[in-house]
Predict the structure.
Amino acid sequence: MRLLTVNTGSSSLKAALYAVGSAPALIYSCTADAIGAASGQFRIRDADGRPLFRSESAAQTHAAALTAFLHWLGQQGPEGEFEAVAHRLVVASQAFLAPRELDEAAIAELDVEQREAPDHLPQAIAAIQAVRRIYPSVPQIGCSDSAFHASMPAEARTVPLPAAWRGQGIERFGYHGLSCASVLATLQGLDPKAAQGRVIVAHLGNGASITAIRAGRSVDTTMGLTPCGGLIMSSRTGDLDPGVVVFLQSRGMTATQVNHLVNHQGGLLGISGISGDMRTLLVQAESNPQAKLAVDCFLWQARKHLAAMAASLGGVDCLVFAGGIGENAPAVRGEICRGMEWMGLQVDAARNARGAPVISPDGGAVSIRVIATDENQELARQGAGWLSQHSRRQDN
């Protein structure tokens, strides 16, 4: 069986074709960056990462980028065929916490929900419709990026608002669930005992979150109703005093303007005034005080939330760094752990510098690992699971 996965970001697209047997095996991958911008990149690669097609022109929409990949797959003959499509959904709704077929009813529900996720769901819906136009009979499956956190206890999920508002679906859903599931699956293969213990996953990238996991189940996480909560991110503010939003609106800003501010003009970009890219800020930190301040604020928040997740677990056995920053920025990993020896975190500087899979010293109280997350592979795994269950139900 072959399955296509689609992961739409606010301005990017990651799609991949997998052969799904006992485990998903990558065949082709596609990435599109800076969608809608003046310049960007569009890449198609094989399973070994070798480039098969490239363009320096940015796609104008997510649907256009996915359509280009679908047409390219169609030119590959049987090698480009697939039986189903699995989409990552950033949606704050109990109705999508389990993988679900994206039929007319589901898409209509997503249309309503996109008001709560204006930076993610419109792109996902456009991608769903793009597939339907070209492959109308191929089943599509929605996989929630929050499902992993459905195991959080009520005290972690509940927001301190009156019941009338909470009854309208306002709660802490959490995100980066597909990443957490991917990391945990890899950790299970590397160290099954650690995977069943107290694990903290620090997914640090353009979006950033830290999640507390006990015995393979999410206990707490930093993101809340939306992916804007928690840590400082590339252009998202992370947690804000609610009074800040009230202040902004009292000065005449609309809800749409506030949303744009906290999701696209805040975070590292907002503090530095230069860039939301951690690589750029690390280079400029020595000479630019605002770049240094942005990095320092990120590290401060990361340490604080890391300690909070350890408190939710009553300790930690394994810390995993994942995401673009977590996987590729040794300086950030080292600085986050510096001063955290009181909770058992120690980093071997040499191992960390070369990006070793384990960056803690032998015999350390807490195992600290770097694991590459693969949300598309997790999408393929969940999509295949839905297809298997759906097939059994039809057989019965």
Notes: The chain has a mean pLDDT of 95. The chain has 16 helices and 13 strands.
